[in-house]
Each structure stands twice: as C-alpha cells, then as structure tokens.
Amino acid sequence: xxxxxxxxxxxxxxxxxxxxxxxxxxxxxxxxxxxxxxxxxxxxxxxxxxxxxxxxxxxxxxxxxxxxxxxxxxxxxxxxxxxxxxxxxxxxxxxxxxxxxxxxxxxxxxxxxxxxxxxxxxxxxxxxxxxxxxxxxxxxxxxxxxxxxxxxxxxxxxxxxxxxxxxxxxxxxxxxxxxxxxxxxxxxxxxxxxxxxxxxxxxxxxxxxxxxxxxxxxxxxxxxxxxxxxxxxxxxxxxxxxxxxxxxxxxxxxxxxxxxxxxxxxxxxxxxxxxxxxxxxxxxxxxxxxxxxxxxxxxxxxxxxxxxxxxxxxxxxxxxxxxxxxxxxxxxxxxxxxxxxxxxxxxxxxxxxxxxxxxxxxxxxxxxxxxxxxxxxxxxxxxxxxxxxxxxxxxxxx
Length: 398
Ligand SMILES: *Cc1c(COP(=O)(O)O)cnc(C)c1O
Known about the structure:
Bound molecules: pyridoxal-5'-phosphate
Number of domains: 2
Helix content: 40-55%
CATH class of the largest domain: Alpha Beta
Order of helices and strands: EHHEHEHEHEHEHEEHEEHEEEEHHEHH
Distance between the termini: 38 Å
Radius of gyration: 22 Å
CATH topology of the largest domain: Aspartate Aminotransferase, domain 2
C-alpha cells in the first residue's frame, strides 16, 4: 500500500543533502569544538561556518545565534531566560492562547515563580491585532511572545506591527518561528523581534537541534549551568553534526521557499475546496487560502489544512486514514487515554465537541497532486461511515 504522509507539521524526513552534510561530522570531524587541538579546531570551523550561514539567512549576526536542542528549548530559553534577567524590573509576561505548549508551559512556570501572565485575545481565525495586544502590554511587561505561524491552523501574524506595540512599552518581543521558517520569509531585521526560535526537524533537518536568535544587547539567563559554550547562554558540548544539519536544512528551505509556497498553497487550497464540496458540514479552521505567490503580508502558511468534520470523532478519522496508509493528526493532545480538545481550536472559539472532530493535514516537500487526489477520494467515505455510526449526528441532521 502506498503511504501518504500528511503530518509534516509534526516532523519531516531528513533531506538527503542534509544527511550528507552531517555525516563527516560524526566520523572525520568528531572533535569537541571546545578543544584546542586540530580535531577540536576542525569541529569548531564547521560549527562557526554553520553559525554564519544561519545568521546570514535570518539577517542576524553570528554572535546572536544560540544553538540548542530544538524549538522547545529555544522557546524556554527565550521566554524564561529573558524574564529571569528582567525579574527585578518587570513582572508581566504576555502570550497568546494559541502558542505551542513550550511557550504555554514556560509561562505557567513563570507564573509559579511570581510573574503575572496575561493572554492577548485572538480573532476567530487566530489573528492577534495591535489593538488587542495594546490592551495587555504595559510598562511592567518584560516579554511578549507571539508565534509567527501557528502549528495547528496555519495562522500567520503580522509580527512587525505587534513588535512595535511591545517596544512602545519597553517590552522585549519573542516569536516562535518554528512553523514559519521555510514556508514564508523569516528575517529578524524585517520582523524587528528581539528573540526568535527555530527547530531543524520541521524543515527536513535532524531532530534534537534548533536555535534561538537573541538580539545583541538582550540579556538572557541560561536555563542550565555548565561551561561557557554559546557564550554561556547554553552550556554543554555543541551537537556539531546536528548544527551542520540545521544550517544545511535552512539553506535548502530558503532556496525553495517561493516555489514551495506556490505549489503547496495550490495543493492545500484544492484539497480544502474538494472537502468542502464533497462532504457536508465541514469547516476550515484558520484563515482562508489566497491564490498565487507569497503575499507581502501572508496570513497563513501554505501547508496546513485544519478541517472539522462534525459528527465524526477525530481519533476515529486518524485511525481509519492510517488503515489506508494515510498519516494525519488531530489538533488534540492524547494524554492517559483521554482525548483533550485542542487548546488552539478552543481559543478561536470552537466548541469542545467540534474541536474533537478536527484533523490537521500538513503537506510537505514530498506531497504530490496524486496524494491529494487519493486522500480526497478516500476521506468522504470514511466520514460517511463514521457519521452513520453516530446517533447524535443523525439526530441533529433530521
Ligand atoms: C514543533 C514545534 C515546536 C517544538 O520544537 P521541537 O524541536 O520539536 O522541540 C515549537 N513550536 C512550534 C510552533 C512547533 O511546531
């Protein structure tokens, strides 16, 4: 059976050029980048070249790049690190309710430490406006953290104008750009952010590697204690092969960003349109698709299609598609057997019931029109079958 992977927002396959670039750093150049001998110097050269590549792609300086273990750590480091450094002066943290759990839970931890956490309101498609942000940012605000692109519904924020609201009050601004990078242009210069998070495994790089951009002059406290690696902002021997892979993955993603945006946007909008036409009671969560190339102010990423199928249970849809060799995910977190509705969908005003009937299809570099056609054929039958087993749905339809 042909396998179709539509869960690229969860993780991606390592690209062959990335793997190839990494291999010598496991074998030939295995040295510790902190060692002074030739082995260490070889690793150090690779590490610093990778840092320059990453910095250049983001319009940053090499000294502003802090390599770490991925998006989760970068989010923790930026939010908690900057909050801790400002603790004596500012006490408020502002985030959106649609943030990744790495930000949500970091904010919860800061709350336990005595910080005041405020949530900015989001629109029914997940947009944060400057007006909404201005209501919760004040002179006591240490850090504002709002993601550039949402992982579940694809909403893209106008970060540059939100940054101005934060800076007006002297607050720092962090953005989680894990789902934005490689899908739309990401530049710390045009965004104006003070801090930004990236992860390699969402862009065809290896798992366990990522970076935090921390603008020169912005103080962050390290989360862990140890050596003076990464200018003491992230102690621990650097994962040189992973970092080489991250830099290569960033290079390739940026080279493909324009063509992949247009291609994936076309596939995604066709798929969404097919489903809305072929299946009754389907809703698209997040912004509508726009046609053509990347707009100057994108409002969604091109690869994410989040649909609610009223009367069909999300987990049942996932399992039925899996039996057909199709991999998708729900926006809901499955913990200890209980399925919680997605916090993102609840935050944009969906009912818990509909949120549990929602599926995220995330396309990627390897997704073809054939894949989309196949899923468009298979899915209506699955939904019909699941709905026929739901007395509640049948009753509501009568
Ligand atoms: C995947 C993801 C993360 C976490 O990145 P990891 O490298 O898996 O820790 C953070 N934020 C967003 C938006 C993500 O999609």
